[in-house]
Amino acid sequence: MKTNTKANEELNQKIQKIEREIQPALYEQSFDKTEVKMDTKKELNSKILKITMKIKEQYPELYKFIDEMAVTMPDQKSPEISLKNLKLYYDSLNSALDKYVLEQSVKAEKMD
Fold first, then answer.
1. Please, are residues 93 and 48 in contact by the beta-carbon 8 Å criterion?
2. What's the pLDDT score for residue 85?
3. What is the DSSP string of the chain?
4. From CA 108, how far away is CA 1, in angstroms rounded?
5. At what angle do helices 2-23 and 83-111 cross, to 10 degrees?
6. From the centroid of its chain, how far is CA 104?
7. What's the CA gap between 34 and 89, in Å, rounded?
8. What's the CA gap between 32 and 44, in Å, rounded?
9. Could you tell me the pLDDT band of residue 28, with boundaries at 50, 70 and 90?
10. 12-37: b or e for each residue (b if 16 or more CB lie within 10 Å)?
11. The pLDDT value given to residue 20
């Protein structure tokens, strides 16, 4: 029983480390503002479509949670979907995918 507890603690520590590494894109929004200006809406929409399709095809168990994500929808004051909102949404998809892949590799290591 103690071995399971220790393994779970180690797994939780690894997951927390992973979350700290990918958290800026989700929570601190610490991306370079010049990068947003470089991408057009068309390019960002294309990137969002590609990563969404990758999740759907390669990680269907993760795909079902995309609808539940806190999507950055425009507010009523500015109903236009901005480059910043598209960038934040793309970053959140990318971070969720990275986190999921890393969590799966940590779980696989634990099984070995």
1. yes
2. 85
3. -HHHHHHHHHHHHHHHHHHHHHHIIIII----HHHHHHS-HHHHHHHHHHHHHHHHHH-HHHHTTGGGS------SS--SPPHHHHHHHHHHHHHHHHHHHHHHHHHHHHH-
4. 20
5. 160
6. 14
7. 17
8. 15
9. very low
10. eebeeebeeebeebbeeeeeeeeeee
11. 60
pLDDT single digits (tens) 70-102: 554 555 566 677 888 889 889 999 999 999 999
Encoded tokens for 107: 């779980």
In this structure, what are the phi and psi dihedrals at residue 111, rounded to the nearest 5 degrees?
Answer: -70, -30
Check residue 108 and give its pLDDT. Answer: 84
Average pLDDT, the chain: 75
Contact 90, 48 (CB under 8 A): yes
Among residues 105, 93, 98, the alpha carbon closest in space to that of 14 is found at: 105
What does the block give as tokens for 61? Answer: 């168990």
